Structures
1.
Amino acid sequence: QHHKVSLKRKHEQSDFFKAIRKTMNKGSDNDCTSCESLNEKLKQKNVEIEILQNDLAKIESSLQETKRKYKEMKLKYKEKKRQMKEENKEVQGEMVKFGLKTIPAAKLALCRTDYSKYVGDLLDICFGRETLSESVLKCSKSRTSKTNVLDEGTINDIMAHVMEKFQPVSIGMVRAAIRQKLNTCHKSKQRNGM
């Protein structure tokens, strides 16, 4: 009896293992196909990774080049700034003659670039705003004896300097700029009750 039970169990186990093998064999074809598909995808990903790595290497190389150029530009800027400081030190002591007056070259260098504003800045440097507010370009009969006339030599030098610097500005344009500056100073004096 015991022998029969043992044989029966062996047959059952054998059938069970056969069934498992059958099931495994059925899925093997699908498994191979899946593996091939995964391998193909993996190859594609590896190619993409390689492309990205190459791009990254190019970007890093470009970044290093940009940093190098930036350092060069920074050094050039510092050197230029140092040179300008040295030049300014030299210029600060220099004087420029306008008629009977002499003015610091450094102040002249700070005058604005528009010709009419440049004229105004020069008049401020040569005469001062208070003198300008009490002065005229030319004396006329209607003016009182208290009114000052600006030094003709200084005015002529200013006009010559401005016409040379701002060609083709005419003498009439420079005179108009001087009158405009004087009018502004006169009005400012009236407003402030000087």
Note: The beta strands are 95-98, 101-104, 135-136, 148-149.
2.
Amino acid sequence: MIRSTAVNFIKSCHKTVPYIYFKPCANHSTNPDYVNATEPYEVFRSRFVNAFDDPKIDGWGARSWMQKLHLEDAVPPPEVVISGLKACRRINDIALAIRFIESVKFKCHAAKGAWEWLQKEIEPTMKQLGLPTLGQLGYDEPELALIDYDD
């Protein structure tokens, strides 16, 4: 009885409710010129480097561009990370620089060895700017991590 009622209800819904088809997006870019299209590497790199190298950038602008960079489906190149760190230094915000490095490290988990390579590339700039690494701050492993004895 209940089964037949449910079947009749589902059949009536199929007749009255149209199906919704979602077309998957091929690519995603925060650049409005390349929505659902592949953005060339040089355009991608120069867009963020130019934004971070702007001498009039403030804290809000830096955070806005860092969010756009984090929304991209790509590991940022070292030039972009270096210009982002220099922007943080210009606005004198070490906390933003550390959070930026953490977000870049999070994005690097998609490709093995990406973080180690990127860390070697940006380390001289971090020393020049006086920024500590995540390992020096103790942010490379969780603070309250417990040893799992079941392994």
Note: The mean pLDDT is 83.
